[in-house]
UniProtKB/TrEMBL annotation:
One of its GO terms (molecular function) is zinc ion binding. This is Putative hydrolase. The gene is php. A divalent metal cation 1 binds at H11, H13, E124, D242. Pfam families: PTE. The keyword Metal-binding applies. A divalent metal cation 2 binds at E124, H157, H185. Belongs to the metallo-dependent hydrolases superfamily. Phosphotriesterase family. Keywords: Hydrolase, Metal-binding. InterPro entries: Metal_Hydrolase, Phosphotriesterase. Its cofactor is a divalent metal cation.
């Protein structure tokens, strides 16, 4: 459950392991002490919630998350779901949408991997770059079924800001209310018109790769947010950094989790985004979207 008294990072990873898939040890984020220190720092700066979107087969570790909450004071909203086709084990391919949905429902209602940690969001369910595979479409159907059974919101992964409209169409086809959907990674391409179109359809969008300047520079993220502000659409935007690597941590020379509040927010303010609009994106929108609602 979300703590409404502070800021929320809407799309993060605190324990993730994609190192085998990417053949790179840097992609195993699992260093407890540096991560815990960064969570304490975030809490001191008014960030109370991390939406942790690592799901099955991505290196999720519920006990690690429980320990972080205990030791740092951060509130973690854990996820259930399946990522993208490249990461699916045979079980996903062999299961029906109904069977996959039941695994999500169990993690929401009973707990994750035998722990007391329950999933608070269906995330990050993803699609491949430029395509939605049949198994990805099946996972989206399963996510819709889990939503209808539990009332939890759905947070998606788009590969390099592609297939957002198609994700919306899929979830709409399965009767998911679009105000319970947030489309992820909308900030990796210069596409303000497409983002506005998605918002107009009723979903939320995430600018959630803040600080990843090698993919897309933050100055252009700011410019797109200014455009959305001029159209009065920031009430459908949430912010995050999608930290996934050891090298992203301060202890390892990276910018760290606090970059969003320490550096990116001042960039927004300097560009004319108001303090109230920052509060909207980091506090009010997540409070509304991630609030647990009945089925």
């Amino acid at each position: 459950m979300i703590n409404p008294n502070g800021y929320t990072y809407a799309h993060e990873h605190l324990h993730i392991d994609l190192s085998g898939f990417k053949n790179n040890l840097d992609c195993r984020l699992d260093q407890y002490q540096p991560i815990c220190a960064e969570m304490r720092e975030l809490v001191s700066k008014g960030v109370t919630n991390i939406v942790e979107v690592t799901n099955r087969y991505m290196g999720r570790n519920p006990q690690f998350l429980l320990n972080l909450m205990r030791d740092s004071g951060i509130n973690v909203i854990a996820s259930t779901g399946y990522y993208t086709d490249s990461f699916y084990p045979p079980m996903v391919r062999e299961s029906s949408a109904q069977q996959l949905a039941q695994t999500m429902i169990d993690e929401i209602e009973i707990g994750i991997d035998g722990t007391e940690l329950k999933a608070g969001v269906i995330a990050e369910i993803g699609t491949s770059e430029g395509v939605i595979t049949p198994d990805e479409a099946k996972v989206f159907h399963a996510a819709a079924l889990a939503h209808h059974a539990t009332g939890l919101s759905i947070s998606t992964h788009t590969s390099f800001s592609t297939m957002g409209l198609q994700q919306i169409a899929l979830l709409k086809q399965h009767a998911v209310p679009l105000d319970r959907v947030v489309i992820g990674h909308c900030d990796l391409k210069e596409q303000p018109d497409l983002i506005m179109k998605m918002i107009d359809m009723g979903v939320y969008v995430q600018f959630d790769t803040i600080g990843k300047n090698s993919y897309f520079p933050d100055e252009r993220r700011v410019a797109m947010l200014v455009t959305l502000a001029e159209h009065g659409l920031l009430d459908r935007v949430m912010l995050s950094m999608d930290i996934t690597r050891r090298s992203h941590l301060k202890a390892n020379g990276g910018s760290g989790f606090s970059y969003l509040v320490d550096s990116f927010v001042p960039m927004l303010l300097a560009a004319g985004i108001s303090h109230d609009q920052v509060e909207m994106m980091l506090r009010h929108n997540p409070n509304k979207f991630f609030k647990t609602q009945g089925k």
